[in-house]
Amino acid sequence: MAVGDCDLRLAAALLGVSSTVAGCGQANGPPLSYTVPAGSIDERPDPLWGDPYPDTPPAPDGRPFDPTKGLGIQLYADRLIGRRVAHFVGHRWDVLRSGAEINEFYPAARAGPGPGMCETRGLQVTGGFFGSRLVKTSAGKWLEPVYTVAGSLPPVSAAGANDYRGHLEQACRRRTDMDMWFSAEPGRAYLAARLADAVVAAARKRAKLPFRLHCRPYPPDIHDRPQCAKDVRAITASIKSRAILQVGECYEEPRPDCVSVDLAKVPERSTRIEDRWTLDIEFDQKGSLTITDVALSDTRIIID
Questions:
Q1: Distant-in-sequence, close-in-space partners of 263: CB < 8 Å, separation ≥ 6
Q2: pTM for the whole thing?
Q3: Is residue 158 very low, low, confident or very high in pLDDT (cuts 50, 70, 90)?
Q4: Of the chain's two ends, which shows fewer C-beta atoms within 10 Å, N or C?
Q5: Does residue 197 have a pLDDT over 50?
């Protein structure tokens, strides 16, 4: 397989994605460690993120900013779209300089694409209400899936797979924080989340790291000493591995053996334009999945 080792195939099988787990080779390095034992699931909805609109002034009566203008997500979506197309529980809102509003409405999530993961996809509509007047510039389009971590990431045993999936489905349906979930290329979401969690778990142990960990300046040609140079292992150990904002290519180059994961430094005060940690993780999938090299960067995303 181009993407996925024995454990990845087993994880997919346990979640009903595939039943083929044959052909696995021998382990080529120490097994991955994780921050949470296998089979654990977050029971609380939306346990990670803070106020989705921390910089938006409250309403004149002092109530927190509400982009649905008091209608609630479902009714606001119905009126904006003109009909009910799905039962929506999550909402992402932004406004462009032109004044146009960008709304993304999310149905309840489901379990997948691996243990501890949830996924859903949003319906994006450009437009909004100005007073009682509807201003809409698009009919709506379904977006690519987004993902989040809702539990432990190591593969679960076959014996407990059915009960585990049922509990994970329930946990995913309770989530409403889709405005902070991440997108990824097909087959990379679970892999990226699993690798990031394994890097943080290894950094928290007292044992010698089974991979090279180093601090990389951002941008790469900057001459200032990066923050992570103080103690790269201690900073890596402090990262909240579930606070994934983005998954992409390492060093902006497509490589099958490397994945880049951006994580919020302070998830409870997070916005999508802020300082974040970036882990560029090189790995080997011959046999069991192993990590070979990790570069940690201080990254700031700036949108003009």
A1: 196, 239, 240, 241, 243, 244, 245, 276, 277, 278, 279
A2: 0.85
A3: confident
A4: C
A5: yes
Token couple for 275: 């300082």
Give me the torsion for CA of 193, 196, 199, 203, rounded to 10°: -110
Residues 237 and 232: their CA atoms lie apart, in Å, by 9
Q: Is 21 exposed, middle or buried (0-12, 13-18, 19+ CB in 10 A)?
A: middle
pLDDT of residue 105: 96
- Residue 131: pLDDT band with limits 50, 70, 90: low
Model confidence at 21: pLDDT above 50: no
